Amino acid sequence: MIRALTGFATRSPWKVIALWVVLGLALSVLGQALVFRVTQADTGGFLPASYDSAAALKVAREHFGVDPDAKPLTVLVARADGLPLTAEDERRIDADAAELARRRVAMPRTKDTMPFTRDRSQIPAVSPAMTAPDRTFRLLSVKLDGNPTDPGMQDLYRAFRDQTRAEFERSGMRTGFTGGLADSVDTVDGSKTRSMIVGLAMVAVIVLLHVLVFRSFLAALLPLLAVTVIGGAAAGVVIAGAQLTGIALDPSTPQLISVVLVGIGIDYFLFLLFRFREQLRTHPGQSGRAAAAEVAGRVGTAITSAALTIVAAFSTLGVAAFGQFRVLGPAIALSVLVMLFGSLTLMPAILAVSGRRMFWPSRGLDRGPREGSAARIGDRIARRPLTLVLASVALLGALSAGLLGMRTDYGQSGGGTGTAAAATAAEISRALPAGASDPTSVFVTASDGGTLTAGRLGGLARALGAVPGVGQVAPAVLSEDRRAARIDLFPTVGPHTQAARDLVSGPIRAAVAANRPAGTRAHVGGTAAVFADVAVAVDKDLRVVFPVAAALIALILLVLLRSLLAPLVLMVAVGLGFTATLGASTLLFQHVLDRPGVDFSLPLVLFLFVVALGTDYNILITDRIREEMERPGPARGAVARAVRHTAPAVATAGLVLAVSFGSLAAGEGSATRQIGFATGLGIMLSAFVLSIVLVPALAALLGRSLWWPVRTRPAAGRSVPEREPERVTAG
């Protein structure tokens, strides 16, 4: 099957290239048009219905018309001269708010507006909320319906913000805006230039690495172009699939898919390029098309095995209870399958068309490579394998010690701390309870067929007001049919803190259970309640996904390597790489940077990326070790040759992938920064410590018994080629 695909691609390369260009462009446009229709910004929407906050969200949606995509938006209105508000000021503010609630806000159309963008124009829901006890400001509650990550929705918010400012400036008032949508827009506006610079820097580093390694312009640019085409097609397939099936994606999923595909796609092209150059050097008279066919067929097996390992690892997330994980896993798995198909068709077709011109203007094909660092590393591993095994294990063990005392942070990773929205939130918190702009809400529904009244809910409201940590309790708000009610609580701690989650999951829910009126059901919702439930769901998922993913990866390695011992060696190695990466990340973020803990998604995402992608490199080096051990000669000499063959490809691929993920470390959100740093570090450890040193050193120690119970024996008549391939700086 693999050779059939690669064979067709190298026999009809122009047809394959043309088909991929058309598909890539069409699916890319489709994906960009649909992406904000299939993403869901509300974390609570990913919780199973059995969780309390999910049940609260259902009541809010059915009885109070709450849009899950609509994030809380609070407008602060104060006198421009800094004096306390008068009764007349309050009446004027409420009148202006009523005017805003009647005025339709049109979504601006700019040159950056994507085709097929949904028109988000609407009449906002604006209502007075409360006045600060010191009368320094009055708060308005605003609802704008729509996905806050949609650029069209963000443009609508900017238009509403400008209209609101102008309306209140005429009355001598100043305004401030905070909440989910305000945070998102301020973060985007503040990081736009930085994001562009980071993206350009990432591309420049990847191109520079290729130029330094291959001394060729085509070898530097074609991999990026190919991966861009395939990645666009893959993202389009995932987004179109989500649209057809009605599955909601987390807003971070498309960005994560893009980073993953750039990294692994260039990795796979690099594996082909290094072997292609080796083939052309070893067989000077062979045509580029014939060399491409032979190399693609040979390397295609290793690439397929590596890709299927990633697919299997992420597919295990399909068993997760938390919907954000359950959707992320299959989405990445599907996109990797598309990248695999492109690696077996488009990439070989490009090699077949370019031939020896791929490495122009380098003259490296006309001479054998000089001995370099890869050769020296291979020789050192062959001479001192035990020393290098002990040194590698000591390094990984020291980093793993950082896991001691690790805490998990379930706080939101949204906007930055230096934005206008953050400054407004800080001003509110100085005069009101910390949860004033994002309250915890108790939803009560009548289950006895009756209706609810303020008097019937009085006991519950008084009990909630007596809970330590609850600053204020707002009057109950009844639904139109009076069969549901909402009681807003304003805790004295911020909604994104561990203290708020402990307060909700403990005293508040206990008070609700003990004091809800007879004949009613009650559920606690809001940001703190959602993340308290997310914590429980994620803890359960970690206990399920880790062993299932490890078992699937081990099974794939068992089938691929046809050995019992070799898969065990690789699994132990990548396990050490995972614990070392998570330990180092804990040391940095929790202890050095004094974060509350590592982000709740980091252990699972890191486990899958480091184990799956680290196994990629181990498969490549192990496959070459097996190939070299089939040649006559001592096993340690075979390991040295395998390192000289493979270390340059692994090192370059590792650097490219680390740069791709490392670009996320420059993001605004804490979770994004942590995932970017940790995954980049994990890839570097996997490439330079595990695949280039630890796994070959273990293979040198074990010799051909590594393949037990089927021992690899040298094939008769096969000899070691005279030319020893690559070093990292070979021209």
Provide keyphrases for this structure.
single chain, disordered C terminus, 4-stranded antiparallel sheet, 11 strands, 731 residues, alpha+beta
Topology:
Elements: H1 2-11, H2 13-38, H3 52-64, E1 73-79, H4 87-102, E2 125-131, E3 138-143, H5 151-169, E4 173-179, H6 180-214, H7 218-245, H8 252-282, H9 288-315, H10 323-354, H11 373-383, H12 385-400, E5 408-409, H13 420-431, E6 440-446, H14 458-465, E7 470-473, E8 477-478, E9 484-491, H15 498-515, E10 520-525, H16 527-561, H17 565-592, E11 598-599, H18 602-629, H19 635-662, H20 670-702
Parallel strand pairs: 5-11
Antiparallel strand pairs: 1-3, 1-4, 2-3, 6-9, 6-10, 7-9, 8-9
Helix pairs in contact: 1-9, 1-10, 2-7, 2-10, 6-7, 6-19, 7-8, 7-10, 8-9, 8-10, 8-19, 9-10, 9-16, 9-18, 11-19, 11-20, 12-17, 12-20, 14-15, 15-16, 16-17, 16-18, 17-18, 17-20, 18-19, 18-20, 19-20
What does this molecule look like?
This protein is of the alpha+beta class and 731 residues long. Helix content is 62%, strand content 8%. The protein is built from 20 helices and eleven strands. The strands form three sheets. Strands 6, 7, 8, 9 and 10 form a five-stranded antiparallel beta sheet that branches. β2 and β3 form a beta hairpin. The protein is elongated. The two termini are 34 Å apart.
